[in-house]
Design a protein that fits this description.
Mean pLDDT: 85
Shape: rod-shaped
Largest sheet: none
Radius of gyration: 58 Å
Oligomer: single chain
Number of strands: 0
Amino acid sequence: MPPPIEALTPSQATLLAVYLVSAADLPRLRVLIAAHPKVFLTSANNETLLRILLCLPETTPPDTYTPILDAVVDGTPLEPPAVDADTPSIDTTSVENLSSSRCERKLSQLLPAPLLQAGSSASDKLTAFLIQRSERIDAETGLLSLIAELLAHYTARPGLPSIAALATDVAVLSTLVYTFSREPVPSLTTFRTLPVEDALEVLIADPSTVPRDLEALVVPYLCVREGGGWDAVWARLSALPFARIVAVVREWTPPPEERAVRAEFVTWAVGVCYRCMETGAGVWEGMRAVQRRVVALGGGGDAHVPEVLGDLGDAGNPLFAALGLLDVGITAAAMLGRPLAEAVKLRLEGSREVQSAVLRQFVRPGTEWSKRDDEAWGRVRDGARWLRSKAQVLGRLEAEEVERVVLAGMLAGMRFGLVRDVYVTSNHTTDISLDEVEKCVLAAFNDFVDNATNGNKTRGGMKNALQAIKTIYPHASNSPTLSRANSLINAVHSLSNYTMPSTNRTTPLIPVQIRIHPDPLSLLSKLLSSNTRSYQHPDALLQIGSDLVHGTGGSEADTLAASPRVLGMCAEAALDEDDFESAYAYITSRLLPAATSRNEAARSTLWRTALLAGRFQSPYALLSGTTPRGPAALANLEKKRELLAWALAYCPPEALGDVLASWRRNEDDIEVLMQAEELAEEEHARLGGSVAQRRMSIARDGETPQSLFEVAKGAARVFSSGVGGGITAPPKEGQERERKRDVVSGMVTRGLVGGLGWVLGAQPSVEVQQR
């Protein structure tokens, strides 16, 4: 018969307890403990009992062994359960024949390692047991609810703070598994050893549920952690997309009792806005929501605005407390299309040059700005003025500069009606003077002209250039500069009606080449050479020349010289096209009156053009080898002699020899022609012609060639009479007409006064010396 349990040695009783616990036979275990209290319940041996209880099956209901645990912690006797006649006795056969040493060997194999060092308190031992028991249950079964049931018995017990933290971890994991159905989740053992940063990766894994997870998981988890760990929370939240961060700020409220956490949350929320590098309508709306939420959480005060942006990663940055600046900064960032930090930095640290560049980008962003309508341009102007005055983001710029940039943008965007209404008609409501408006208009005018591909003022760049100056000219300003711009448009437009090749002769002349041409009047020479018979419209060319000189900033002298020069070009073009009569008409009827009015430019042009026409030989006659005959030919030579006389009258002394050589050739040509005519008449008379027919000879009325010596003698007589240098203008209607030959001879004589007088020993008059 086996011995009673009271007869068991301590080693045998301990080994038997292990067997009973492993079989979850807790009633008999309690009987065994009651029979051997010194073996199990003394302070020296109670850890052994806790180690034995760790051998319980993990599914054992906690309420079946918590009374034993209470006896261990409290040090009170453990009452055995009530035993009736039907309760079987404890079987000791498994240990009765084992020696103490053998029992010890078996116990070392079956029992877990010691919980704590010797001398630890009962509370510490119980804490260690509960932690190991909870981890064993989780590892073997994953029944977190069973762990929670076990720990619930001790969470309110004083002296067990670690159990409250353990119970919180179990509750957090239970919420993840049972409430949120989150899989996979780390084991309790792993979760308890995770650093706060890694644990938050587990708790805040789904960006779409962050506000809920903060409330249900993170707050409980951190409330039992020493040191809080909220810095890690802010860092984890900062890694979320900005839209999710906005949702967190709007939907989650920090624990009311945690004032420090709430203050940190407000600072973090403002800092997130400054660190956000995103732009767009959704971002600005989100920042507005953050600002409103921050104010609602008690951040309504406004700190002093700092002088620099500072370190945006520093939670102590005073910038984060300046909520008024945040409000203005969000609006400015939205208007500029820049991150908030850039907009605020522009206000605090931006130089005048940088702010000026930002203003230009604001007025003309991207490629679509020119398509704005008047309403959109009005918003741009209001925005630019607000950015300078209220937001001070462009505070280093003058109001006039802001208006100037906006005005230039409107002009470049071809909103001419708006420019006239705002900056001209209502100029008193702007920050820019009418003179500055005129400068902006002229700058835009030049840009349009320089980018125009065609000179026609009814389309393209030239049309825009004309509309630009019409915003102010002539109703608001008739300044010389605007007048010149208008003349340039007229000149370029008129030139566009002609063929005007550029320097490479393959592409047409464009407006900018006209505007910057060093000698714009010379373009008319190209016009005349490229457009047949264009010289027949001198009045149109004179107007173009006048507009060209005036429009390109020519001086008064240039303007005075323009008309004679254009007429000279027309005469030369007529000669180039074998039209001597037109050239003769231009010289005698238009250039000559200007020359006699003491226009030096006209005089210079007259003698050169007259000399060229006086030398003219018809290309047709030269090519055909024929010699002109008859009255028409002699009349032509007489006209050339007249032209050479005018050339002689107005040429400088150094050109006199060349003019006289041409004169002599002309006289020779006349003499040859007259001799040929006389021979022809004699032949005609010999053949029976009448005297009347002979008198039709070209050498009628005693008009025989006058030699150069005779002309020189006439010049000497002029000198001796003390009269010289005066040029007689063509006779007016009603005056007695001199014989044409006498007039021409007189001109030549007087012309020689200044050129040959020194040969004859004459002393010219003061007027001649001045010439």
